[in-house]
Design brief:
about 300 residues; alpha/beta; 4-stranded parallel β-sheet
């Protein structure tokens, strides 16, 4: 779908604008799970999540057009900040359409990164507004269903294997599936035997339901892990998970919360529930690991 050379080219393209985030082995988690556990600290990425990787790849690929027309995006959180930040860095006007119930801190952060905010009554109305801007000639960016975004996110997978060549397992959470798709395509081309564990929380299990049904399923997200709240995953995400995913794990909000507390206490990081759920999933399947395995948790946002 997206070959390794394209992924490596994207990584070089975005390198001046994003952090190469650290990955750290955690002794406490390793002892608890009976294996070697590493935290990929993508929550230390600029804006606090992985989103700028994909946005920069797309915006830089179409920079002249983006500067000419401006960029319109729909988001209730992290993607908004990623688009606003990339636009500010590259001289592109950005308009972010956000639901009225978006938490104030997300609105303030998006404005601080330079985004112009337009409020909509609901996420559905926000996408409708974006389609209207698209018809008027603006460049509209989808928050996850976009292969150039996926390619930018795949740079995380390349970093993983450079830093932990003996890697055996990756746990990655799924909202719309762009992050999971990118990381999976990268690591599977670099080291096919790696097991990719996809993770969702109860109430935001659009991928889990799609895997079970064999087709895309629309849901009404109800989990407290708000950044996993896509109403459905992309076709690409479902295809990648079906072909390359080792196992899908759905955990409760409480499990994700308890994992968040453990990460705060032992790793000294404060993640989103959408990130701590990867630890909850690894705890759930700990009997699948041996002392010789090397397991990475993608802590995708703070």
């Amino acid at each position: 779908m997206i070959d390794l050379e394209t992924i490596k080219t994207a990584r070089e393209r975005i390198a001046p604008y994003v952090h190469r985030t650290p990955i750290q082995r955690n002794r406490t988690l390793s002892e608890q799970l009976g294996t070697n556990v590493y935290c990929k600290l993508e929550l230390f990425q600029k804006t606090g999540s992985f989103k700028p990787r994909g946005v920069f790849n797309k915006m830089l690929t179409h920079l002249d057009q983006a500067r000419k027309t401006g960029v319109v995006a729909v988001s209730g959180g992290n993607f908004a900040q990623g688009v606003a930040y990339a636009g500010s860095a590259l001289g592109v006007r950005t308009r972010i359409i956000m639901p009225r119930n978006t938490p104030r801190n997300y609105l303030e952060a998006t404005r601080a990164y330079g985004g112009e905010i337009e409020l909509a009554d609901s996420i559905t109305d926000a996408f409708d507004k974006a389609e209207e801007y698209d018809r008027q000639g603006s460049s509209c960016y989808h928050p996850f269903d976009d292969r150039e975004l996926i390619t930018g996110h795949a740079s995380i997978g390349v970093e993983l294997l450079e830093d932990v060549p003996r890697l055996t397992d990756v746990f990655v959470s799924v909202g719309g599936g762009g992050l999971m798709g990118g990381i999976t395509l990268a690591v599977k081309q670099l080291k096919p035997e790696i097991r990719v564990w996809t993770v969702e929380t109860e109430g935001s299990d659009a991928l889990g339901q799609a895997l079970q049904a064999g087709r895309l399923v629309k849901i009404v997200p109800k989990s407290l892990a708000k950044t996993l709240g896509a109403p459905e995953v992309s076709e690409d995400a479902l295809s990648i998970a079906r072909e390359y995913g080792h196992r899908h794990v759905v955990v409760s909000d409480r499990e994700a919360y308890l994992a968040l507390r453990l990460l705060m206490e032992r790793a000294k990081v404060t993640t989103e529930l959408a990130a701590s759920c990867t630890l909850a999933a690894a705890q759930r399947v700990a009997d699948s690991f041996s002392p010789e395995d090397h397991v990475a948790l993608i802590l995708c946002g703070g």
